[in-house]
Structures are given as C-alpha cells and as structure tokens.
Specification:
Order of helices and strands: HHEE
Helix content: 25-40%
Shape: elongated
Distance between the termini: 53 Å
Largest sheet: 2 strands, antiparallel
Number of strands: 2
Radius of gyration: 29 Å
CATH class of one domain: Mainly Alpha
CATH topology of one domain: Histone, subunit A
C-alpha cells in the first residue's frame, strides 16, 4: 500500500491545481489514506464469473415512435419560427461563417 503523507497530499493538490491550507492538507491526508485503504479492501473481493454491469437495475429504456410533424407556417407558407430569427437566408436561419 502507498503511504499517504502530507508530501503526497501536497503533490496531488499541485497536480490537481488546488491550493490547500495546512489544515486542509492534514484533513485530506487522513481522508485520502482511508479511501486508499477501502480501495485495497475492494481489490481483495473475488469477482470472477461476475458479468460487468452498466447499471445496478435492469431497466428497458422506453422508446416512442418517431412522428414527423410539419412546421407551422404563416399566411405566406413560410415557417413561423423564422419570424423570431435575427436574420434569414434561403428560407432558413442565417448564421455567421465559421471559417
């Protein structure tokens, strides 16, 4: 097991771009040590023959049928949504060039 001391905690904080006070370093040193002890304990568990899971509950995702609905149009036959567009080009939204 890795020995967790204040030097290691400060190094992890530096790599994480965190500024920690001396009090926080002491607190996080003990917490990090406890976390690593727990991870070490988990590594001793025999999981051979256990299927990997993406979710603890088997749930089917309900899907709805895709339904195409025409866009509402104004009296001129143009899509109503274009009325709120700041600028229109070729019967669609005009956007600034990307390149």
């Amino acid at each position: 097991m890795v020995v967790v001391d204040e030097k290691l905690t400060r190094k992890v904080a530096e790599l994480s771009r965190l500024e920690l006070s001396d009090q926080e370093v002491q607190m996080f040193t003990s917490q990090l040590g406890e976390i690593l002890k727990y991870v070490e304990q988990l590594q001793t568990v025999d999981v051979s023959g256990v299927e990997p899971m993406t979710h603890p509950l088997e749930m089917a995702t309900p899907l709805r049928e895709d339904v195409v609905r025409p866009s509402p149009v104004d009296e001129n036959g143009k899509p109503k949504i274009l009325k709120c567009a700041p600028d229109v080009l070729y019967e669609g939204f005009k956007v600034p060039p990307i390149l």
